[in-house]
């Protein structure tokens, strides 16, 4: 589990502003702390998507010494969100015809594309079997 520290500060307009000192340009905000945290999780994933080499996360003490206040909070890098920002690559995959019909029925009921459903299913499978 990889995480980066974010600084949460309440701005003049009452919004909670968030920035990641280790990731220049990775900033966001929310109308309250909870929304700001959700937005920070998304902003972190979007900023790091597609990077071959992720920046090194600084120790919390280093981040604390660089701020003028605010809360320093660890934000976990969500691999599912990050994948949604990565470039997709077209591949040719063979699937039994009956399974493809099941996939199409399921995805139709849930408003998903074939590619989206298969990527989500593979991601879930890999996460659940990573310990094996």
From TrEMBL:
Domain of life of the source: Bacteria
Q: Name one GO biological process term.
A: regulation of DNA-templated transcription
Query: HicB-like antitoxin of toxin-antitoxin system domain spans which residues?
Result: 9-121
What is the protein's name according to its record?
A: Putative RNase H-like HicB family nuclease
Originating species = Desulfobotulus alkaliphilus
Name the lineage: Bacteria, Pseudomonadati, Thermodesulfobacteriota, Desulfobacteria, Desulfobacterales
């Amino acid at each position: 589990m990889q995480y980066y520290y974010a600084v949460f500060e309440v701005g003049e307009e009452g919004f909670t502003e968030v920035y990641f000192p280790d990731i220049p340009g990775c900033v966001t905000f929310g109308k309250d702390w909870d929304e700001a945290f959700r937005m920070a999780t998304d902003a972190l994933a979007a900023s790091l998507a597609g990077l071959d080499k992720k920046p090194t996360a600084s120790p919390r003490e280093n981040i604390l010494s660089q701020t003028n206040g605010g809360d320093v909070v660890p934000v976990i890098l969500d691999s599912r969100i990050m994948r949604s920002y990565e470039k997709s690559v077209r591949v040719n995959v063979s699937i039994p015809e009956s399974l493809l019909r099941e996939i199409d029925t399921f995805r139709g009921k849930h408003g998903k594309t074939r590619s989206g459903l298969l990527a989500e299913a593979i991601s879930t499978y890999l996460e659940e079997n990573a310990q094996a």
